[in-house]
Each structure stands twice: as C-alpha cells, then as structure tokens.
Specification:
4-stranded antiparallel sheet, disordered C terminus, about 25% strand, 10 strands, alpha/beta, about 240 residues, 6-stranded mixed sheet, about 35% helix
Length: about 240
C-alpha cells in the first residue's frame, strides 16, 4: 500500500534523512523506532506529503505522491505528534467537519460514534475541543482521520498523553483496522508495546534506517534472543552519533 524509495532530506548543510526505503503492506502494522532526532518525524512528514524529499519518491497505492498528490492523499490518514484541531468546534462538530471535507456518506457518523464510545469521549463529544486535555485531543484527531476510511494510516507518537485505557483502546483499534486491510505505520518510544503489537519493525539512527524486519528476524540477524528493547539499545548505542551523510 505504501512504498518509499531512497528518501533523503537536507536542510541546508544538514542531512536529516539519508536514503531511507521501506514498504508497507495492506493489513500490516509497522513500528517505526529510533532515538530522539533520528529522523523519524521528518520521514513520516515526507510519507504524508507535508515535506518534499530532496531525493527519492513515495507511492501510496498506485499513485506517485509527488505527481498525483490528490489521488494519493485520498488513501492516506496522518496524525502528527501534536495534532492541529479546531478548538472552537465541539468534538462532534469536528467529526462532521472532517466528514464533509472528505465528502463521506452519513453512515460514517455511526462509525465515528462507536469510536467516541471506545475512546471514552462520548460524554465530552458536545464540549468545545479547547477544553480537552492533550490525550483527548489526540483521540478526537485520530477519530477525525478515521472518518474518511484511509487505506494507509501514519501515526507519529500517538500514545503520548494517553492514559493506559486509551493506549489499550488505540492498540485494539489499530489491530482491528489492520484486519480490515489498512496499512498502519506507527512511531513510538514504547518498545514493549511495539514488540507486542507490530508485525515488522524499522529502526532509524542519525537519519538512516539501520535495521528492518520482524523481531524474530532481527534476533536471528544479530544472533541474540534479547527483547526488542535490549536489541534496540544495543543497535542504537553502537551507531548513535555517527553522521547521517
């Protein structure tokens, strides 16, 4: 559903991302890991079409993101680490706004109501978003993205600000979406969660993808039975600080 080839992004003399390639299959949940400053967010923004790569290309479905952005983005949902929501709207008004933006049928509202209930937002759905906590804003922004039934979902640190119940609901929701054929990429610092829920893992350090595969494949490649957390620390300690270019 998503393919990136040779993504590179320079900001002046700094190469923030260098030659990153990845694929995301329908129904797959891909965990995007790396220390702070590794280039994950920059990569995700290029995948979402918010940043133009210095080099490389992105395809979503059968569409080149640069040459056919409208067609590609119709298939795409994107949740940044600090989502922008219209705070003068209520939760339900925001959902209806997103439905109208994507010209979605009215039956999507029933799906949205089920998400409001699952994320314990139904009692606050008619309150202004300006009064929501960060975690509540994360939830309503995610529901807003789900209203247009994306086939590819990019989530940048979506668990930040969520309480344990909200984080569990998020995990259950993402797995259910994958079972429906949605391809999901999620960046997170919660390595035990990534090990438990993700089908494949990609690890970035200093702008480069240094490892990719299932946890079992990575353990085999590096001749260890260590947990993902221990393996991650081993790999990043060995390469962190090396220049990306």
């Amino acid at each position: 559903m998503l393919r990136a080839d040779g993504l590179t992004k320079r900001f002046g003399d700094k190469e923030a991302v260098c030659d990153v390639s990845l694929t995301l299959k329908a129904g797959e949940l891909f965990g995007f890991l790396g220390p702070n400053g590794a280039g994950k967010t920059t990569t995700i923004r290029m995948l979402a079409g918010l940043l133009t790569p210095t080099r490389g290309e992105v395809r979503i479905g059968n569409h080149d993101l640069e040459r056919a952005p409208r067609e590609a983005k119709k298939l795409l949902g994107y949740l940044p680490d600090k989502p922008l929501v219209y705070e003068k709207l209520t939760g339900r008004e925001y959902i209806r706004f997103m439905m109208e933006l994507y010209d979605m049928p009215s039956d999507v509202l029933d799906e949205a109501e089920s998400y409001l209930h699952a994320f314990a937002l139904d009692s606050a759905a008619d309150d202004l978003i300006s009064g929501y906590s960060h975690g509540m804003k994360q939830k309503i922004a995610l529901i807003g993205q789900l209203t247009h039934r994306p086939r590819v979902l990019l989530l940048d640190e979506p668990t930040v600000g969520l309480d344990p119940k909200g984080a569990r609901t998020l995990r259950e929701t993402l797995r259910a979406l994958c079972e429906q054929g949605v391809a999901v990429l999620i960046s997170t610092h919660l390595l035990p969660v990534a090990e438990m829920m993700c089908d494949r893992i990609g690890i970035m350090v200093s702008g480069r993808m240094i490892a990719s595969g299932t946890v079992v494949e990575l353990q085999s490649r590096y001749h260890t039975d260590a947990s993902l957390e221990d393996l991650f620390l081993q790999l990043t300690d060995a390469t962190e600080g090396e220049p990306a270019g």
